[in-house]
Backbone:
């Protein structure tokens, strides 16, 4: 829960100290459950060496960067989460793509920043880059999740809990509403079969995207109205990509909306804060 929601929303970016309970621990539990379930029950394509390589790269790199530029050692909790996310979101028959994706995620997180925080969700931007530039080596593998009831129940339960703690359920609901709306648009005006248009909602891949990727407190707006608009915009751009038969449309949709929307939002909030300070 946010310690002081009114104070926290008047910021360009969220700080973890704003929360009385750090939501990252619940996100970590959320992702860890999938890693264990995938390795033990679902026989994921990614094996333990890929998971360890991703987490080791993100954690060691963030430890080093924080030590060099901030002069302190700090447990890289966010980097561990990023490493887990990478190991779940991509698949490759080689090990180096996991290392490269992890390296890109942390490097861009610290290099591409604007008004108080990084712009991109680290997992999202890194996954988009490797999927776009290295399709011969890296793929996203939603089918490995299956659509089993047990898997979906775990995702929904842990996802709702994590998003509730992070105060980001509004983003999930707005994206979900937008996805359903645009699914009907795709069906009525573009000839997509209705069940096929709505079908991704029943898949674990899109559920993970909703609960884990678009709800990152650091790279979503700090006000509720802006978060609702953010979720709807991601759903709209996702629909455009689906109409044009792009693979992995949700990843590219979030990337573009974040690239354009987050700097614009932070600039507006920053000007508002300057005006209030002047008054």
Residues:
């Amino acid at each position: 829960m946010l310690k002081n929601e009114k104070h926290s929303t008047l910021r360009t970016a969220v700080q973890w100290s704003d929360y009385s309970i750090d939501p990252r621990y619940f996100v970590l539990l959320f992702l860890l459950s999938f890693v264990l379930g995938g390795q033990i029950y679902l026989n994921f394509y990614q094996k333990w060496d890929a998971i360890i390589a991703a987490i080791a790269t993100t954690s060691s790199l963030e430890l080093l960067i924080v030590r060099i530029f901030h002069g302190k050692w700090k447990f890289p909790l966010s980097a561990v989460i990023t490493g887990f996310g990478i190991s779940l979101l991509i698949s490759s028959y080689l090990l180096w793509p996991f290392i490269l994706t992890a390296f890109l995620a942390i490097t861009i997180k610290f290099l591409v920043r604007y008004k108080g925080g990084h712009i991109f969700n680290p997992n999202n931007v890194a996954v988009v880059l490797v999927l776009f530039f290295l399709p011969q080596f890296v793929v996203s593998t939603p089918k490995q999740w299956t659509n089993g009831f047990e898997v979906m129940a775990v995702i929904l339960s842990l996802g709702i809990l994590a998003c509730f703690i992070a105060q980001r359920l509004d983003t999930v609901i707005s994206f979900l509403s937008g996805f359903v709306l645009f699914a009907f648009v795709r069906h009525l005006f573009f000839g997509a079969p209705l069940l096929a248009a709505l079908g991704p909602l029943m898949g674990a891949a899109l559920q993970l995207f909703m609960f884990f990727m678009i709800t990152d407190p650091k790279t979503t707006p700090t006000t509720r109205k802006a978060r609702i608009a953010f979720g709807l915009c991601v759903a709209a751009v996702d629909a455009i990509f689906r109409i044009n038969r792009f693979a992995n449309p949700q990843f590219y949709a979030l990337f573009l909306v974040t690239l354009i929307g987050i700097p614009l939002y932070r600039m507006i909030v920053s000007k508002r804060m300057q005006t209030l300070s002047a008054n």
Summary: The chain is about 70% helix and 0% strand. The first helix runs from residue 5 to 9. The chain has a mean pLDDT of 89.
